[in-house]
Prior knowledge:
A: 10 strands, B: Butyryl-CoA Dehydrogenase, subunit A, domain 2, 12 helices
Amino acid sequence: MEFALTDEQRMLDESLRGYLARELPLETLKALAREGQGVSEKHWRELAELGVAGLMVPAEHGGAGLGVLDAAVAAEALGYAGAPVAFAGPAVMAPLAVSLMASAAQQAEWLPRMAAGEMRVAVAFAGGTGQTGRADVTLDGTTLSGAIDGVLDAAGATHVLTILPDGRAALAEVRGSGVTGEVKPTLDRTRPLSQVTFDKAPVAVLDASNDAAAAARRVRDAGRVMLAADTLGAAQAMLDKAVAYAKERVQFGRVIASFQAIKHMSAEMATELEPCRAMVWYAAHAADAIPEDAHVAACHAKAHVAEVGRFVQTKATEVHGGMGFTELMGLELWYKRISLDRHMLGSPERCRHEAAVAQGWVAG
Amino acid sequence: MDLSYSDRYRALQAEVRAFIATHRDRSPSAVGVRRKPDAAILAWQQLLVEKGYAARTIPTRYGGYGGEPDVMEAAIIAEEFSKAGVAAGIASQGISMLVPTLLEVGTEAQRERWIRPTIRGEVIWCQGYSEPGAGSDLANVQTRAVLDGDHFVVNGQKIWTSSAHYADWMFLLCRTEPEKPKHHGLSYLLLSMKTPGIEVRPLKTMTGKSTFNEVFFTDVRVPADQIVMGRGDGWTVANITLKYERMMLGDANKFMHRVHRIRELMEGTTIDGERLIDKPEWRDRLVRLQGEVMASKYHQMRLLTQQAQGVDPGLGRMIVKLYGTEMGYRLSALAVDVYGAAGLVFDPHDDMTGGADDAATSWHVDHMYDLGLIIGGGSSQIQKNIISERGLGMPREPKPAAR
């Protein structure tokens, strides 16, 4: 029994954190967030070169052939850095969906381009996640019509993969006819959401899975684990910043880190947050290797880490006092990132309900 | 990440399961620490020691099984007993705290004298630490021990002493060098509770039970060789003991078991004809707590791996007492809420006179006892000081200026 990351996973973590610390200093991140869309083509390209885009693409299609746990390690590092790049969609849910649902020919066509980072696929759920907002599409043969709000990672995407509540999935080209992706000004300035509209858009249908609903659920669960991992990283960043700030800020002639009011808030944050790391690892590992536990673990990880995330985003901001309430420190970027994660792919309330249903505690 | 056990551990798991299947009839219903072990418990303990399911790593020359320290083996044994609902070995302060302390810093003579009867449950220990003026500020202990020939003479008072009313021996933190700074003036003595001059008065707690005592010392004579380490080393020894105490708390399997007991309660309790488990506002509280318990369970698996690899978990270890006790309190709070008004008939039996509590009373007692766990063994606030200072590197509160 070894409940730990492998050496390879630790190296992945270090190399990503090293790159992000070098190439995404706070001023750069703030400038990108100010520019409106938040997404950085440069960073996406460089991360793709580091292998992030192809992390989950099977090796025979040019990827690294890694699993959800490896992806969770990357998601935590990206959340820690507040990286303004798409990840959960194009690097995790899309390759997983294509691997589980697409025909061999489709896989051979798409996966190598996804691994190279040139085909960037946002994943849009047309219902079934518990996410609020419009999600109303109709798949008619090979054309898709309707609209979905709150689509993550669609800014800069080349394709949108729509997953319907019954598990059918359809891939549309963003620049193709009948597809409109409108990037909305979004609370999280590092990962804007889009409204995607389809007007008889021609699509490639993914129908090779013999249990499409289960495959769709696996994709959704992997997405939820990524959001939990992102919150974990972002909350750890906020805690680290709060502790560092408290050690410098002087009031009443002392650094405020010497006041128990501040120390105890910090200790509470650390106490809640540290077990979240093991929980995210377990949920991600279950997605890879323990199918009977995977769904409940993903629901619980998404819900619990979101609750801890809210506690940390609140208390870490309070430790910064008035400065935490301004844009000057950039702390709000992580605050808003945690808020976005909470509401995507199902709130904590929704995820807990699904966990209860999956355990047979209540009828679905 | 590899959550499967290697062949060696699977073999141990199978062996423990077979043992439990064969011997479970002989298992006493409870091996509580709230009363002196009876003959059935002592026989069970002896069987467990022989098999290596208790005192596994204690050397054979002190009566133990002589196994190599292996946290994974310990975890497997604990898990199998807990899953089977069969009493594991006696979990007393003597076994969990004093024995490892003696192994770490005791003399050979002390180990030979006390470890064997302690692990067999024949000698029960109580912990003489807290005083009315030395709770969170433990180093402020004022109970005095003065050397008189080849004996220390002890005078003073201890409080919150669990099991003092039936314990045979006490490990005592007392002041032997009053002229030295407070942390350096303490010593750690072992003394028989039968020594003349000791008076034990039960202290009734809010649970209605007398699990604690006050202990008064008047000219109590303790042989001078019953000191652990040297004069003035008491603080060092006490901290070794406390390190083992904080590792005793927070068994995630126990908490998960509680989650399922509360689920069963919610399935069996109705309001206006609807089961509580079917009411979203009730169910959500339970599922939310289940999430917390899962986080703690996986965290402990991670800690276990780190210990097995010889890595110091640092902050990860420091949070365990705070996290576990606060979570346990929220769990038992949900249980008493599920009982609601119908559970307010409160009829606790004193542990000394025996008699079982009804289920609702038992949850109320547990709930209040859980609050005791938050306060005792280093309160949550003390834990937060430790976490912030040692885990996060924040400075200590400055001492008030001398007047």
